[in-house]
Amino acid sequence: MRFLSRRLVMPNDLNFAGSLFGGRILEWIDEEAYIFASCQLDERSLVTKHIGAISFESSAYQGDVVEFGLDIKNVGRTSVSVTCMVRNKITKQTICVADDIVFVHIDSETRKPVAHGKTKEELLELKL
């Protein structure tokens, strides 16, 4: 898993208990996973189809730096599935894991799924 991006937890990211709001971290995960999938496929026309099991394991607080680890899980004809782990940059403690985020490549005009033309093997080679 490659940790590719970081965010600073700011006051407007907190819930009533003073920790990182779950909805905010889900927003970040969706955005980071889209950027990762888009870069891997070299395609911009992707939409989120599914976000599977999400496990919150620890909290983050104001001033913490969180980092996003992303990896390709599966590649379909029109889709790509990504795993995302969010962890504290300093302590390396896992904050959250989203194990199955599926993006579908769509035609920008018809908005219908179309093949992206990549295989899992090709995408894994990009890691080298």
TrEMBL record:
Residue span(s) of domain HotDog ACOT-type: 1-109
Entry superkingdom: Bacteria
UniProt GO molecular function: long-chain fatty acyl-CoA hydrolase activity
Keywords: Hydrolase
Biological process, per Gene Ontology: acyl-CoA metabolic process; fatty acid catabolic process
Pfam families (UniProt xref): 4HBT (PF03061)
Record's signal peptide: none
Coiled coil residues, start to end: none
A single Gene Ontology CC term: cytosol
Family that this chain belongs to: Belongs to the acyl coenzyme A hydrolase family.
Name used for this protein in its record: Acyl-CoA thioesterase
Organism ancestry: Bacteria, Pseudomonadati, Pseudomonadota, Gammaproteobacteria, Alteromonadales
